[in-house]
Design goal:
By secondary structure, this protein is of the alpha/beta class. Helix content is about 35%, strand content about 20%. It starts with a strand and ends in a 10-residue tail after the last strand. The structure holds 5-S-methyl-1-O-phosphono-5-thio-D-ribulose (MRU). Belongs to the EIF-2B alpha/beta/delta subunits family. MtnA subfamily.
Length: about 325
């Protein structure tokens, strides 16, 4: 269930650690080019996270875990590495969860490389479980909408929102996936569509503002998205545009599911208003790839995430089962 290399001969994860180097499929380049980015220092790992060479909450966490292992292997001050990596992207909870796990392990004398590898395997294993629980919600013939990329590239393997989709497809259910293009970085059109092609899953890319049209026409049976942070009351931060999909889904009586491992849950926050929302460079909106699409005089705003209130969410698919937002307190350890 890994990602296939460009020539289809090798299977790989979105991120791995080899010879002291953090290696990443450069997600900025897909699907046009398949290139591996090599991060040899903490600063380069931080750059890869910040500039979205790697993106998606669980994959960001795994990259940070390898970054900590690398820093420790290089004899670098791990507190300093922790700070550098912590200040890359503010919304995805997995980043902080991974950094804390690594610091605890390092402080208690565990082998950091082994720990980072265990961390990656654990998160990917959790996502496979999400696939098993989520698959049961998908009926034969379902047409499923997803937003952004919550696939293998966003985790390392399997994905969160795409794990149930992949399992359903593998189990022989006939499914169809509506892929939101996901402006401004086009994670849907570039990355989710690329993964659907790799898996041979029937799909169509739609403009971000087209989902409501298809919902009203009765052409969407369910929505599954990933999450960057989930708070105690079941509010969910995810890629900008998720909120409006959830509201329109509820209006049309379409079930709206969020898929995420427990590493994405932040029980220290009561509700979604407390989640720090990353605001990225205006150029991401003013340009489409290298081409400026807006007048030279215009400015833009670019929040990378929004918060979907719990009341719009039918269920949260985790490695421990499917929970209503008001039930997630049961997952608090
Ligand atoms: C399994 S990934 C879940 C989320 O991280 C994903 O839906 C998302 O919003 C990614 O945002 P990105 O800005 O591409 O890192």
């Amino acid at each position: 269930m890994r990602i296939k290399s460009e020539d289809g001969t090798k299977e790989m994860r979105a991120v791995w650690f080899e010879d002291g180097i953090v290696k990443l499929i450069d997600q900025r380049q897909l699907p046009a080019n398949f290139e591996i980015f090599e991060a040899k220092t903490t600063e380069e790992v931080a750059y890869a996270i910040k500039e979205m060479v790697v993106r998606g909450a669980p994959a960001i966490g795994i990259t940070a875990a390898y970054g900590m292992a690398q820093a420790s292997l290089q004899g670098r001050n791990v507190d300093e590495a922790f700070e550098i990596l912590r200040n890359t992207r503010p919304t995805a909870h997995d980043l902080f969860y991974a950094l804390r796990s690594m610091m605890d392990a390092i402080n208690s004398g565990e082998d950091p490389v082994k720990k980072a590898e265990e961390y990656a395997n654990d998160i990917i294993g959790r996502c496979e479980k999400i696939g098993e629980y989520g698959e049961k919600l998908i009926k034969d013939g379902y047409r499923i909408l997803t937003h952004c990329n919550a696939g293998a590239l966003a985790v390392g393997d399997w994905g969160t929102a795409t794990a149930p989709i992949r399992k359903a497809h593998r189990n022989g259910k006939k499914i169809f996936v509506w892929v939101d293009e996901t402006r401004p970085r086009l994670q849907g059109a570039r990355l989710t569509a690329w993964e659907m092609v790799q898996e041979g899953i029937e799909h169509a890319i739609i403009a971000d503002n087209a989902a409501g049209y298809f919902m009203r026409k009765g052409e969407i049976d369910m929505v599954i998205v990933g999450a960057d942070r989930i708070t105690s009351n079941g509010d969910v931060a995810n890629k900008i545009g998720t909120y409006e999909k959830a509201v329109v889904a509820k209006e049309n009586g379409i079930p709206f599911y969020v898929a995420a491992p427990i590493s994405t849950f932040d029980f220290s926050l009561e509700n979604g208003d407390q989640i720090p929302i990353e605001e990225r460079r205006e150029e991401e909106v003013l340009f489409c790839r290298e081409c400026r699409i807006a007048p030279q005089e215009s400015h833009a705003r670019n929040p990378a995430f929004d918060v979907t209130p719990a009341k719009y969410i039918t269920g949260i698919i985790t490695e421990k089962g499917v929970f209503k937002p008001e039930e997630i307190w049961k997952l608090k350890s």
